[in-house]
Amino acid sequence: MNKLIVQNFEKVKQNLPKQVKLVAVSKTKPKEDIETLYQKGQRIFGENRVEEMVTKFKELPKDIEWHMIGHLQSKKVKKIAPFISLIHSIDSLKLLIEVNKEAKKNNRVIDCLLQFHIAQEESKYGFSEQEGIDLLNSAEIKKLKNIQIKGVMGMATFTSNQELLTSEFKKLAEISKLTSIIIPGSTEISMGMSGDYLLAIQNGSTIIRVGSTIFGPRN
Ligand SMILES: *Cc1c(COP(=O)(O)O)cnc(C)c1O
Known about the structure:
Blueprint: H1 3-14, E1 21-25, H2 31-39, E2 44-47, H3 50-59, E3 65-68, H4 77-80, E4 86-90, H5 93-105, E5 110-116, H6 129-137, H7 139-142, E6 147-154, H8 162-182, E7 188-190, H9 197-202, E8 207-210, H10 212-215
Parallel strand pairs: 1-2, 1-8, 2-3, 3-4, 4-5, 5-6, 6-7
The structure holds pyridoxal-5'-phosphate.
């Protein structure tokens, strides 16, 4: 049992309003670290690599909710479709169609968030506001009965500039207002990481994704 991880976890939990969910981002960390938090009641863990998530899923308790937070390739969806709880990183219609197909094979409905590009940094991933809204309004998405859009996700710029972070979080919260009108009930806003989760919560986050502040730095 790693006492430091437990202490870190409890500090983060103290700062959390009740309505905000914590995804403990366990990527690159051993399964023992996950077990430590599991024993303290944490059930939601986030990973960004399919193979690593599948290995951990097999080894760990089955009531863990696994969240995919990293870029997901269509060809890998089938590996996580039987058990994934929430995919944060839907960044194309093609991916959504694939998730729907594999969810159907597994007789389930898979919850998804649309990833929006809110940072100043160049990134290949995430919709612009208009692209995301067009997708939600499209005829194609209405045919997908085995996915459920629960809300939006975004990654802010890697910076300590609080004004810039605030403006990016506010932008995602504004996008969420629009998208939740198109898909009623899709009110989740996944934003905020180790360095900025308090600011994200102040700006409307409902799901924070915290890794290194809990588990320590990654190699
Ligand atoms: C790694 C990662 C996190 C967690 O990052 P920390 O700064 O360690 O809290 C959150 N979200 C995504 C998408 C990530 O890839």
